[in-house]
Design goal:
Elements lengths: L11 H33 L2 H8 L2 H21 L5 H19 L1 H5 L2 H24 L5 H24 L2 H27 L11 H28 L5
């Protein structure tokens, strides 16, 4: 959205408005994470729902495709929606994500999931704070991490067929580094959303939803990668 980030002097009123916008972003992100966690736990407690989702590959892949459609709609066409519709799509995405991620509660112990969540939350808090307060322009880093992420996605798809454990762990560690960096970059990008002059009226909610989506994806992906390291199997 931005090629470079420039520091702009804000009035006291503008600083309060910017802080309010950031608070909305974190509020929507936190709500989405809570919805994902609660729905995933409810799914795990229902054998029939689990069987419906994971017993039929068409249902599972259909949910994944629906998730991609939601993200694509928000990122690519959010300006065509009202704030209410954008919010509904975002909440719907968090529910869909919960359905597909419920398998995590079956694969790992509850204790390791909780401990990994707190590790993720602590890392997220540190990097988001850095991204918000640093004076350094993180655009170059963000662009580089974006390209590396594309490489990781391609490598992950290839490794589905190779099933190479070395490649698996390289992808894991590289992915952790990428998403840790993206948390800082996305936070800085969101901070300057307000200064772009485009966050007014109904666009405030839509901008907050887009920002929350970016941070939500960073958090979830970092959590899943860290779970590979710290998660304990239910074997």
């Amino acid at each position: 959205m931005f090629e470079t980030f420039e520091t702009i002097s804000l009035t006291e009123t503008q600083e309060r408005e910017q802080a309010g916008f950031i608070a909305k972003v974190y509020g929507w992100m936190s709500l989405a994470l809570a919805i994902t966690a609660v729905v995933a736990m409810l799914v795990v407690s229902s054998p029939a729902v689990l069987e419906f989702i994971f017993g039929n590959r068409f249902v599972f892949f259909g949910l994944l495709i629906a998730e991609l459609i939601c993200v694509g709609a928000l990122v690519g066409a959010v300006n065509r929606f009202s704030g209410t519709v954008a919010t509904a799509i975002f909440i719907g995405y968090s529910v869909l994500n919960a359905l597909t991620l419920s398998c995590v509660f079956l694969a790992y112990t509850s204790a390791s999931i909780v401990s990994t969540f707190f590790i993720t939350a602590t890392t997220f808090g540190i990097m988001s704070t850095y991204g918000y307060f640093t004076k350094r322009d993180l655009t170059t880093m963000g662009n580089l991490l974006g390209m590396v992420l594309i490489g990781i996605v391609i490598a992950s798809l290839v490794n589905l067929f190779l099933a190479n454990s070395t490649v698996y762990w390289i992808i894991t560690y590289a992915g952790i580094v990428v998403f840790v960096g993206l948390i800082a970059y996305d936070t800085q990008k969101i901070k300057y959303m307000y200064q772009s002059g485009l966050i007014e009226g109904d666009n405030v909610r839509k901008g907050a939803i887009l920002g929350a989506l970016s941070l939500y994806l960073d958090f979830i992906n970092l959590f899943l990668l860290l779970l590979r390291l710290f998660g304990r199997s239910r074997d």
